[in-house]
Structure formats: C-alpha cells, structure tokens
What does this fold into?
Amino acid sequence: MDFGFGINRSSTIDLTKTDNGLFRRVCSEEPGARTCMACGSCSATCMASDLSGMSIRKVLLAMQRGQDIRHMLSKCMLCGKCTMVCPRGINTRRLVLTICRLYD
Amino acid sequence: MIYEGKKKIWSDYQKEIPDDHWYYVRSCIRQNFFPASERMFTEITRGVLGRDIYETPHHTTCGGIAYHCDTIPQETAMTIVARQFALMTEAGYENYAPSCITSFGNYAEILETWREYPELEAKIREDLWKACRREFKKPKCLAHSSDLIYHWRDEIAAKARFRLVDRETGDALRIVEHIGCHYAKMFPSKGVGGAEYPYVLAGMIESWGGQVVDYPERRHCCGYGFRQYHVKANRGYCVGNTVKKFESMEPYHPDAIITNCPGCPYFLDRWQYVMAEQTGRTYGSDGFGIPVLTYEELAGLVLGYDPWDLGLQLHQVAVEPLLDKMGIKYDPQAKYLGVDRENLMRPQLPEHLKCF
It folds into this structure.
C-alpha cells in the first residue's frame, strides 16, 4: 500500500553488529592509525576534502563503524599534506595506500 | 545500600497530589482517537472512587497543538490558558487536571514562565480582562489525570475484578509503559518520578499485578513530535522512530503497551498497521501486533468493564489476545456494535497485521 511516505532508517550504529575487521587489519599493519585523536587537521588541509568529502578522520571513523569508505578513498590524490600536519605523526599517505590494498 | 538514604532521594522525585476536588479538562484529540477513555476517567473517579471531579462545557483547546506547531505565539496560548484558569476559578476549584500531556506541559511551561516573568502574567491578566472580562487565580496544584489514577491506583487495585496476570500460567503480564514527552522531560519536577525515573504508569502496572518491561529505547519518543507528523513529507522520520521503539521492545515479548499521552497510543497503535503494510513485519505473537491501551482503558479492564464499552474495538491492533490472557470474557459478535447496539460496520481487515 502506498501511504505517500516510507520509513526512514535509523542512523544509530550498533557496534555489536558492525564488522570492523578492516580497521583491525589496517591497525596491525599501520599501528599509528590507533593514535588518531580525530582532531581534523588532515581534513582541514586536504585538497580534495572541500569538493569530494574525502577525510582521513572520517575514513578511520567509518572503518570502525563498518561503513563503506570506497567513495572517499577514490578521491585521495596522495599529495601528502595531511601527513605533514598530523600532530600524532601518522603516515597518512601510507595509511591510505594500506587501506586501498586491504580493501580489495 | 543505605535504604533510608534511597528513600530520602526518591522522596525528592515525588509530587503532592491532593486527594479530592479536581477541575478536569479534556483533550482536543483523545475523544476522537480513544473515545471512551476520558468518559471512563470520570466514571471511575466519580462512580467507583467517589471523588469530586468537575467539568465545564465552556472549556476549549489550551492552544498547545498550535503552539507546538509554531502557528501561534506563546502569548496567545497564555491568554487561552488564562481563560481556562478563569473558568476554574469561577467554578470554585483550585486543583487543575488536564487529560492531555501536551496541555499539561503547556500549563506547566506557562506557570513557570509567569513565575519567572511576573510582568508577563500581569500583561496576560490585562489582555484577558479586555478580551472577555474575566479574572483568574492560578491553580494550587497542577496534575495530569494519569497522576490522579496513579494516586488512587491502590484503591482501584482493591476493587479490581481482574489482575494483570496470565490466567493460564499465573505469571505477571509484561507491560511496556510509554510516557508522553511533555509529561516530565520539559519540567521534571512536575511529574511523578521526574524525567529520569517517571513512575506514574509503572506504579499502576505494579499495583495491578503486572510486570514493567525495561528495554533500551524505553524513553524514546513515539515519533509523533507535532512538526514531524503534521508535514507529510516528514512522516517517514516519524514512523522511523516508532520502528526503533518496537525493534527495541520486541525481544522482551511485551503483552501490552500503556501510555498517558493522546498522541502516543494513537501512533504506537496505528503505525503497527503502517509498518506491517510496508515491511510485512509484526511485533506481537502469531502475526498480531502489541495491543496499545490508554491507562483509563487498562483501569477499566481491571475493574471489569466490558471491553467494547471501553472502545477497544476502535484500536487498530487486536486486543483479544490480551483479554484472553487476563481471562476477560467478551462477545466477539458485539465487537462492532456501538452504543444502543447500533451497527458500527465491520472494517476492512489489513493484509499483514492479524485482526478480528
């Protein structure tokens, strides 16, 4: 029956039901990923961020929530600016390449 | 645990409820949704409990719906409310009991605003006098009508013919209590148990033999939320909230839901049909839904009133499984007979949600 409206899906993330296996595999190869404090410096300096929504911070968060990150990863131009500003010294460019390798 | 200390803390969450002489005002919408509930309130409080409950036909809307839909300013709602208080003053009452949760929240908000800004109260008094030559005293006590049933719950239990107990197994029925958001979330001190531990419906359930179901989304909104529902494009969000509640309570297998708000029982009841039609999903057992009752209807059931006199045939979700569990006798043939045995006509039954 068409009521003229559907049922909006809840945005709640149930961490007991999400698969964060990719995040754990990435952390085993790039332990620095665990030190991210989500300050957003990488997003602020990212050349692709404004136009495409690419953000290392968002990528790490989405991986922990078991969400799709393919659309963000494909926008990274590997310029390395985020690596230069990261206060935790995470090698973000290598992190992106590791994620891409493990993702496939 | 220091029990005395716990008792002391809990006493801070209680509210004083006078035992008699109440000025009762009905809701705009409850009589359309659940037509016997308010009549049953007056029947139980006057007839069964022998209390003085006064009503006047001059009462109008409190303006709460329009205020919460952003169509009138608060000053307009205040002047409407001032007139209601004037009617109470003229009738010689000091205790004010609205049947609607949003009215209750509206009254509480206005009284609190007047306490904070006395000059605004003076202006409203002047506006009321100019508009209709009336004056008013503020109520000494403001309580929702569910507070009154809560206050008299043990008297009702003493007169009960049925208890919230499964007749076959002897187990307490598992009841979900859903409290309207405007009851205590805005002004916690105005509700029994405050916003954190609202006890008004849980107290009734326990007193009448049932078991309260505690589930993760217990305090989540039913989804109505005025602005969400009244704009059709937003109704997906509205029903999305209801889905969230039902998904959360389903694993606890509740036998029924009771509510104290006009909108909540309507949406929790009717949305079960919408959810079933859209997803094929039902939340009760054997394809039925979970019956949703108002607290007056539940009080009427335990006191032994005929379910069809309580208007339970106007619910979307079939209530028969609950009646069977409680051991309440009913005539299935009389379900769609109204007052004076007038034929209300049998409705078309839904495809997915099992009904009679």
Q: What stands out?
A: The domain at 21-102 of chain A is CATH 1.10.1060.10 (Fumarate Reductase Iron-sulfur Protein; Chain B, domain 2). The radius of gyration of chain A is 16 Å.
